[in-house]
Amino acid sequence: MKALVTGGGGFLGRYIVEQLLARGDDVAILSRGHYPDLATQGVTVIQGDITNAATVIQACMGMETVFHVAARPGVWGTWNSFYQPNVLGTQNIVAACQEEGVTKLVYTSSPSVIFDNQAHEGADESLPYPLEFENMYSHTKALAEQVVIKANGKQGLATVSLRPHLIWGPRDTQLLPRLLARAQAGRLIQVGDGTNKVDLTYVEDAARAHLLAADALGPDSPVAGSVYFISQDEPVLLWPWTSELLQQLKLPPIKRRVSKVVARAVGGVLEACYYILRLPGEPPMTRFLGSVLAMSHYYDISKAKQDFGYKPQYSMAAALAKTLAEMKKERGRKGENNG
């Protein structure tokens, strides 16, 4: 397979690249950064932005499969800062695939595209998009996902959208670092009563799901034009799991708790202050965060199992053990460098 991975230098993207290389595929990445370590492994590194249509067309030349992973994540920012990379960037990818004769497009979406401020317990892909969004990331990813789905079957392109939930693991750049930074500063507050269950997706399994979906994707496949939830299929109690993680890393325990109602009220006030006063950074709480931290959200992955044979290779316990081991090694390396 000759494959392009957008965002191939990032967290999930790099694991996809590594798994493609391990099985002998010809890999290129399109990323804003330069990654000489990937270049030395035989990866063609194309430095550029997905919002630049000409750059995207150049990157897609000669490709059979595109894994579109690059996106602008986060809970706060301007509409344009999310719309440009997430929607316009995806439109550029789709157009370039069609123009350059790419036959397969695997898009990395998110379960947040269907979050409607209700608990999701074992929900499947029939759940519709909400009428309103409280988070610009979720909104723009939903718009982008629809672009990908609508492109299926047009100009020889087969598309599929994957929704891995809360990706984590070694080399994480988003979920775990933000969580641990708050804990280290004593600013991590439990929202809700602690009984909410959530799905998480170990990064190696998330990457593997992308390869499996790509291999099964074709014009006559049930995968074409479909969306799929991806997870470890082993939802955890969010706050006890977080407490165990902090304990293992010898970080301060969570000592404060607020209700979902209070968290959302505080989030609404903070959002207004940050918006009106144009404060830098992002609010420590938003309405969206208040809900997702207090409510259950885990999904049925039967469709992915049936259509392209996805099955997690790691249990949550094994994934946690591997992640903790890597994090402790990294701490040791940093300690040696600082010493």
What does this structure look like?
- With 339 residues, this protein is of the alpha/beta class.
- It has a domain at 2-165 and 200-231 and 299-313: 3-Layer(aba) Sandwich (Rossmann fold), CATH 3.40.50.720.
- 45% of the residues lie in helices and 17% in strands.
- The protein has twelve helices and 15 strands.
- It has helices at 11-22, 36-39, 53-60, 79-100, 136-151, 175-184, 203-216, 238-248, 260-277, 287-294, 302-308, 316-338, and strands spanning 2-6, 26-31, 44-47, 65-68, 104-108, 120-123, 158-164, 167-168, 189-191, 197-198, 201-202, 226-230, 236-237, 256-258, 297-299.
- The strands form five sheets. It has a seven-stranded parallel β-sheet with strand order 3-2-1-4-5-7-12, sandwiched between helices. Strands 6-15 form a two-stranded parallel ribbon. The chain has a two-stranded parallel ribbon with strand order 8-11.
- Helix 1 crosses helix 7.
- The longest helix is centred in the C-terminal third of the chain and has 23 residues, at 316-338.
- The N and C termini lie far apart (45 Å).
- 45% of the residues are buried.
- The mean pLDDT is 94.
Topology, please?
Layout: E1 2-6, H1 11-22, E2 26-31, H2 36-39, E3 44-47, H3 53-60, E4 65-68, H4 79-100, E5 104-108, E6 120-123, H5 136-151, E7 158-164, E8 167-168, H6 175-184, E9 189-191, E10 197-198, E11 201-202, H7 203-216, E12 226-230, E13 236-237, H8 238-248, E14 256-258, H9 260-277, H10 287-294, E15 297-299, H11 302-308, H12 316-338
Parallel strand pairs: 1-2, 1-4, 2-3, 4-5, 5-7, 6-15, 7-12, 8-11, 9-14
Antiparallel strand pairs: 10-13
Helix pairs in contact: 1-7, 3-4, 4-5, 9-10
